[in-house]
Structures are given as structure tokens and as C-alpha cells.
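Just wondering, can you check both lines?
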Amino acid sequence: MQAASRESYKVAAERLDAYVRGAEPSAVATTADDILSVAALLRREPRLRRALSDPARSGADRSGLLGEMLRGRIGADALDLLASLVAGRWSAPSELLDATERLGVEALLASADSAGELGEVEDELFRFGQVVSGSPELSSVLSDPMAPPTQRATLVDQLLAGKARPVTGYLVGVALGGFGGRSFSGALTRLVELAADRRDRQVAYVTVAAPLSDEEERRLGARLSAMYGREVSVKQTVDPEVLGGVSVRVGSDLYDGTVLRRLNETRNALAKR
């Protein structure tokens, strides 16, 4: 997002946080569903996106237009949050769409946080991403934008039935829709990071040849937390092809101490002789 859009989103996000503090988790989840339904509407209706982000209209005018369309169709809390969103300045209609979807996701994560389930939701999203990436056939089906959305959603429901919380399933559905214009795998990764961020944590993606023990994972997390000045959520991927050692990615930082990297470096050095 450009600066004006970021500031507009920040105002709505702060309003969401204030609302969450005084609401029941179930009510917040309902509000999230309302907001995400409006995001889906904006995705389908480009003319509406343009009207609600038109800089030639005042913020009050755009909020009024939103109210005329949606009053009685969504909850009052969702309408209030969305009105604060569209009243801001938007650099492009697409940024209003992204912000609406992000606000709905943040509301859904907040409902899980209030219910004491956010850590589990974060882990379930990551594990599901691992299952998908480990199966080329499944990844191809779920990532195919030409496949009927209902078919992909049904498959996800079958895979997660009895294995994940409802919020997790809902968020996977958001990822199927290409959250923020991302690929399915990219959307899942972003949702994991947003869940961690709401818990004031940084995500560390760790790749190893064999699983770390609980104690090894705890020590690694503690070292990374000391480095970054923030709690770190360690997400392990086991890949025997790295042969040994550990690769750690935190944001744009990569620390690759795997045997595979050292072998590749040696091979490259020999090739230059």
C-alpha cells in the first residue's frame, strides 16, 4: 500500500482493536464474516470499488453510500468499521479491496485470540501449508484458479474435518481466494505471519534434515528471540535433502548452515579452478 492507503488502514485497524476489547469472541467472528463478505463483493464489483475509493467524493459521502447499500444486510459493528475504512484516502481502488480483506482477516484472528486459540490456529495453518507443499497433486488442485472454487473449498473441508479449528478452515478459504493477490501458498504463509504478529511474535522458518527435539527448538527460539528483541515462533520443515545442519529464515534474513549449502559452495569453488 502507498502512504495514504496505509494511514487509512491504520485508522480502521485501531478502531477494530478498540472494538475487540469490549466484544465477545463469537461476536467478533460474526463481524469478521460480515467484513469478508463485503471484501468478496468489492472483488466482484469493480465499479463499486471505484465509487468507494473515489478521491473526488468526500469521506462522509463514501461512508454514506456504503451505509445505503449495506445497512440491514450486515451487522452494525461491521458497518461501523467499514465506514471508517472507506472514509479514508485510497491511492487505488485495489488498495481499498486489499485493506477490506485484511481488516476481515485481522478481525477473524482477533476472535481466535480472544478465545485463546490463536497459537493453535497459527500452527494449524502452517501444518496445512506443509501438507499441501508435500503433495504436488494436492498443491496443483488447490492452487489452480481455474478449478471451481466450491470444489476446492469442499476438498479443504474434507482435509480439515475434525483436525482444525473453524477459524483455521475459514482462513484457508480466504487463502484459496488469493488473499491480497497472492498465490495459495503465499497467502497461507502471510496468514501464518499475521497470526504470529497479532501475538507479537516473529516467524522463523527452520529447515532441517531431521526434526529438532523440543529442547533444541526451545534453545533455537530463545537465541533468535535474543537476536531480534521479540518472541519468535519457530516453524520447522524437515527436508532430508539438506543432509544436515540448519537453515533459518526470519523475514528477509537467511542463515543457511546446511551441509547441502557447504557442498554446493565447494562444488562451485572447484568448478572455477
Notes: The mean pLDDT is 90.
